[in-house]
Structure formats: C-alpha cells, structure tokens
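[Meeting: bench + compute handoff]

Bench side (C.D.) handed over the final construct sequence. Compute side (W.E.) agreed to return the predicted structure before the next meeting so the bench team could plan truncations. Sequence as handed over:
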Amino acid sequence: MRKLLFLMLVLCFSSLSFAQIEGKWKTIDDNIGKAKSIVEIYKKSDGRYYGKVVKLLITPADPKCSKCTDDRKNTPILGMEVIRGIEKDGSDFDGGTITDPKTGKVYKCTISRDGNKLNVRGYIGFSLLGRTQTWLKVD
C-alpha cells in the first residue's frame, strides 16, 4: 500500500513539474544550428514569467542591444530580460513578449513544454504569422 501511495505522489509531482517552464534553457541559433545562449525563466511576484540571458555561448558582434527601442536600448545582452509577462494558460504559457536582441524587435510570445524541450513561438499579430524555436533544458 505504501508503495502504491508513493508511486501516486511521484506521478502527481512529475506531472506538475512537467508543465512548468521555470529553469535554465539553451537557445539554438536558427542559422547555424548551434547553442547560442542560456536563458533562465523565472516567476515574479506578479505571477507572470520572465526570462533573462544568463550566459552567452556565442559572442555576438554587438554585445549590447543597440537596435532595441525600449528600456533595453544599449543594455548588455548578458543579463537582459528577453521574455516578459508570460502567463500560464492551461498547459501553455502566453500573453507576454519576447525580444530578439540581434534585431531589437519585440514579438508576442507563446511557450509550450514537451518534456525537456520548450517550443517558444514569437509572432506579430496572429500566432500563424511567426516562427517557433526549440529550447533545450539545461540540467
């Protein structure tokens, strides 16, 4: 009986953590297919999720976001908050934005988790008009 109870608790907690996006994730460069950076996603006291660059694996030509047009203009990419205001919506996360430090463009963002992968979709207007990157969990 104890083993059964223990197994049920483990399954319950594993399914809860499966849907979470908090933690460190390795981003992959679309052009060269190599790991580009590590982004740490965390939850703030407002209940929303944010993500900042905690490590650069490829040194960019411009280490600052010189093309950003908001409060991140000319701030270093390392430490920059690239995901802002994501909210949990069922098993997905959306309602926030993601910024591409290379271009300075800000996109609406939807995130879904598939095991040790995050599917991060940035888009303008409708979700159909965008692209999805796969980020990998960092242990």
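W.E. noted at the follow-up: The first strand starts at residue 23 and ends at 28. C.D. will use this when planning the next construct.
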